[in-house]
């Protein structure tokens, strides 16, 4: 396949990722597990090395030069994250370990605000990270979990059901922007607007979208939004939770410890201002610095161009896999994020992944932390190819060739 000529020189960008230039099982590595984690460009690796070689110290605590530099770098990363998603101010940015921790934070601090009979609305396509924390919250409070249905293999939400569901005393509506197992892109702004009309607080899981699409939390109208640095060319161990200032300000802390206090007595304490109230203990300072470099790197290319590139590779893969006998495709045939999930008749996803791995292709097979959804669709596992900016049309050609071979091999 060929991509339309577009501004970024995709082939040249590939050279920015040292890890991609190696053989795996004596074949050139084709990395198509970007939904799990992405690779890191030299700019991010260098930012981490530079920070540890020159500036490392703890933040907000000392007045010596290195502590000043570390604090400045950490707070600059926060300001950059606010700009990256168009938050109204850096105070709306809480650094976390990743999407999972961000969602757990929100679910925990909402404990005193929910009671028996309240509703927590989710969708059937949520990653376990946006399901299990709400199950725990429901168990603590007696609130009830409700689910927006997924219509079928096309992986769309049944939008006609949403107002009815929101009307059942729903206080919180948490949903994913892009499904990690279906590739569905949900209409976030519309879902947030409907939730707002019913007085429900919205929590958007942007794990699969933040590194691919431009995000504007003010235009989306969400109350909370969480994402992970490692899925957007940044380091592991750092993520962002956006929360609207007035909500963050009104909520009680998540964890207790250093940095999150204003004053401490033996029996009680008062809290620091937001966002520090939600950042107990020494944060991942280097991670924030690396994430800052990743955001700069992505915006140097342009997120609209990255989104178009990833979607084009996914569309092409979806269309061509559909021509292979025995393949069942999941997710919408139209607009989709940069990933494709499929099942091959007669083969478990793990066998397909092992087959591809022998050819140097990294895929993911399993339930993708979407067990209830796959159970509903009647498959134990799918095979997933997920794309990022360094993947090429030639890699898609090779993927299709290898899946054809797998279909021949397992179909015998
Ligand atoms: N939400 C979605 C939609 C995800 O895809 C993931 C990770 C998470 C939350 C959790 O992110 P974390 O950074 O806190 O772990 N998804 C995947 C995946 O699809 N394969 O491996 C991890």
Strand order of the largest sheet: 4-10-9-8-7-5-6
Task: Specify Rg, calculated over alpha carbons.
Answer: 22 Å
CATH topology of the largest domain: Aspartate Aminotransferase, domain 2
What summary fits the major beta sheet?
A: 7 strands, mixed
* Low-pLDDT runs: none
Description:
With 412 residues, this protein is of the alpha/beta class. It has 2 domains: 10-40 and 302-411, Aspartate Aminotransferase, domain 1 (Alpha-Beta Complex); 46-299, Type I PLP-dependent aspartate aminotransferase-like (Major domain) (Aspartate Aminotransferase, domain 2), CATH 3.40.640.10. It contains 14 helices and 17 strands. It has helices at residues 10-14, 42-55, 65-84, 99-109, 132-141, 162-166, 188-197, 217-220, 245-250, 285-301, 303-321, 349-357, 371-377, 393-411; strands spanning 23-24, 27-28, 30-31, 93-96, 119-123, 144-148, 170-176, 201-205, 224-228, 239-243, 261-264, 269-271, 327-330, 339-344, 361-362, 364-366, 382-386. The protein has a 7-stranded mixed β-sheet, sandwiched between helices. A 4-stranded antiparallel β-sheet has the order 13-14-17-16, covered by helices on one side. The longest helix has 20 residues, at 65-84. It is globular and about 70 Å long. The mean pLDDT is 96. Residues 35-36, 98-100, 127, 129-130, 176, 180, 205, 207-208, 228, 364, 368-369 line the site of ligand 7TS. Ligand 7TS binds next to helix 4.
């Amino acid at each position: 396949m060929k991509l339309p000529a577009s501004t970024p020189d995709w082939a040249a960008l590939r050279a920015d990722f040292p890890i991609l230039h190696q053989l795996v099982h004596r074949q050139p590595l084709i990395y198509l597990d970007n939904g799990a984690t992405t690779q890191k460009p030299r700019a991010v690796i260098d930012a981490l090395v530079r920070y540890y070689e020159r500036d490392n110290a703890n933040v907000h605590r000392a007045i010596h030069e290195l502590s000043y530099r570390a604090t400045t770098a950490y707070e600059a990363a926060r300001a950059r994250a606010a700009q990256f998603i168009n938050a109204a101010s850096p105070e709306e940015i809480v650094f976390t370990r990743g999407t999972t921790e961000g969602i757990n934070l929100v679910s925990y601090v909402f404990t005193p605000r929910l009671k028996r009979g309240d509703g927590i609305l989710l969708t059937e396509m949520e990653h376990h990270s946006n399901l299990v924390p709400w199950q725990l919250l429901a168990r603590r409070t007696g609130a009830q979990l409700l689910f927006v249905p997924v219509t079928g293999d096309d992986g769309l939400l049944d939008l006609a059901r949403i107002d009815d569901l929101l009307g059942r005393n729903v206080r919180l509506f948490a949903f994913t922007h892009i499904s990690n197992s279906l590739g569905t892109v949900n209409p976030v702004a519309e879902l947030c607007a409907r939730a707002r009309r019913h007085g429900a607080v919205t929590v958007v899981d942007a794990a699969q979208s933040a590194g691919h699409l431009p995000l504007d939390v003010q235009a989306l109208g969400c109350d909370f939004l969480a994402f992970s640095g490692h899925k957007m060319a940044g380091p592991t161990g750092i993520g962002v939770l956006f929360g609207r200032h007035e909500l963050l300000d009104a909520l009680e802390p998540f964890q207790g410890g250093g940095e999150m206090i204003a004053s401490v007595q033996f029996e009680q304490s008062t809290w620091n201002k937001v966002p520090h109230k939600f950042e107990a203990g020494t944060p991942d300072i280097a991670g924030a610095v690396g994430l800052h470099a990743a955001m700069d790197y992505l915006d140097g290319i342009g997120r609209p161009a990255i989104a178009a590139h990833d979607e084009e590779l996914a569309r092409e893969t979806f269309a061509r896999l559909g021509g292979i006998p025995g393949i069942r495709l999941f997710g919408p045939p139209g607009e989709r994020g940069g990933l494709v999930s499929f099942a091959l008749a007669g083969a478990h996803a793990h066998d397909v992944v092992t087959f591809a791995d022998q050819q140097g292709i990294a895929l993911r097979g399993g339930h993708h932390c979407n067990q209830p959804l796959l159970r509903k669709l009647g498959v134990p596992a799918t095979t997933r190819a997920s794309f990022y900016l360094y993947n090429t049309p030639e890699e898609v050609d090779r993927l299709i060739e290898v899946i054809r071979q797998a279909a021949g091999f397992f179909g015998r």
